[in-house]
Amino acid sequence: MLCIILLLFTFLIVGSSKLCPHQCSCYDASELVDCRSRGFTHIPHSIPHGTWLLDLSGNKLSELRSTSFTGIWVLRVLLLSQSNMQVVHSKALSSLTFLEKLDLAYNELRVLPPDFCQGLTALKDLKLSHNALERLESHSLEDLESLERLDLSHNHIQVIEVGAFRGLTMLRHLNLAWNQMTVLQGGLLTMQQSLGVLLLNHNNISKIETDALAPLQTLTILNLEANQLRSLKFKTFLNLQTPSTHLQMSENPWTCDCELHRVFTKILHVRHLHVDDYMNITCHSPLLLAGASLGLMHSQLCIAETATVLVITATVMVTVVAALVMAERKRKNQQMNLEKQGNDPMPWESRK
């Protein structure tokens, strides 16, 4: 009798682990569960315990609760894109300790909870693109010690607290394009020695702090296109000690002067730095050079500036010489008048 009960109990457990949620499709012994675009407003029940891929994209979930994934311990891929997600509650993902890929793209997330990444120590690929995030707090991502790819593009991020990427020591690909960042501050990427690709294009970056890029020892691609850069400091890129780094910096409002020419000339002469779009970099100011290619006329910038300096210098010298001549002439006239008065035998009063 006891054996029969044990057999029934085992059958129930195994059977429940193979159940497929209503309206979903399950494959490979219920290890792949497809619940795409089924109109779900919450995470469906009866997801098999052995599921390693769960696709819930295209639904109307709006939120992830703290108990949403209880019991799905071996899940490795979770797809939640285009699900009208607005809120991820505290510890909503903490049970997914084996999760390697998480897709939350194309949702409506404005903030991440402080413990967003708690338990996600195996996560390698995180997509948060096309949301409404405005800032990244210092603790939201700190536990993602295995993360290799992070996509935060197409958000409204203005502020990233120093320390936000502190725990991401394995990060190789970071996409922050199409946000509203204004400064790339030093200390932000201190722990990203393994970072190979950094995409910062289409932000509002007008300043790169001198030591911001220094820790990036393996960076191969740095995209700074379409920002608000007007000038550069050569030391910023000299600190970038990598085997080979390709830079993209067109579509910025560059102020084309002799200093900018000197900086780019130095960068082009550094063996491991390559400005891929140098011939597409155009001047925004001065107005006389607006739209002109920096690569085609860079040598003329210093010539024009030197000529301007020479003209100004010559004008100043002519003015100074003219003033000296006038002063000397005045001094001589005064001296002659004094000598003439000294040689006159009759005082003016006696002549009357």
UniProtKB/TrEMBL annotation:
Q: Which chain positions lie within coiled-coil regions?
A: none
- Residue stretches making up the LRRNT domain: 19-53
Q: GO CC annotations? A: plasma membrane
The answer on whether this UniProt entry bears the keyword Cell division reads no
Q: Which InterPro entries match?
A: Leu-rich_rpt, Leu-rich_rpt_typical-subtyp, LRR_dom_sf, LRR_TM_domain-containing, LRRNT
N-terminal signal peptide: 1-17
Q: Where are the transmembrane segments?
A: 307-327
Query: Which key words tag this protein in UniProt?
Result: Leucine-rich repeat, Membrane, Repeat, Signal, Transmembrane, Transmembrane helix
**Name under which the protein is recorded:** Slit homolog 2 protein
Q: Which organism is it from?
A: Carassius auratus
